[in-house]
Structure to design on (149 residues):
């Protein structure tokens, strides 16, 4: 049986919150419990994870323990006909488009309206960018990191 920590403020002293630390195959099943969530440490990925009801999946908390935010840029060049580009440095599921900034040339692209993800390292643009400077695709990710340098 679990214990609930609610409205607790650790003002001073040496305190820690203990978390479950198991392999990814032993994740608690909290799907369907919309008022429940889970925070755990994965010994498989060596990262902190939380359960996201948005995607009904466990998500890694970005860069915990790294000491710096990892803002990353990927660049691609439009061909005038291609609408899918990759691989990017990170994989994104559908619904997480707002976690990424995308520019084609100097024009900001609207998440979900101008581009989508399918749970891999490929970005799908809804219209094909041209060639040259106007077709240069710049993708910035890592802005939702939890640690600043």
């Amino acid at each position: 049986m679990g214990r609930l920590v609610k409205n607790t403020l650790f003002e001073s002293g040496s305190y820690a919150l203990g978390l479950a630390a198991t392999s990814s195959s032993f994740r608690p099943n909290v799907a369907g419990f919309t008022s429940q969530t889970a925070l755990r440490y994965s010994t498989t990925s060596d990262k902190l994870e939380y359960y996201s009801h948005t995607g009904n999946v466990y998500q890694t908390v970005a860069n915990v323990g790294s000491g710096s935010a990892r803002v990353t840029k990927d660049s691609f060049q439009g061909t005038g006909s291609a609408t899918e580009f990759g691989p990017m440095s990170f994989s994104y599921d559908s619904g997480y488009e707002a976690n990424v900034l995308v520019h084609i040339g100097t024009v900001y692209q609207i998440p979900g309206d101008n581009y989508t993800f399918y749970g891999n390292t490929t970005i799908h643009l809804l219209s094909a960018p041209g060639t040259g400077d106007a077709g240069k695709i710049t993708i910035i990710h890592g802005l939702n990191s939890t640690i600043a340098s």
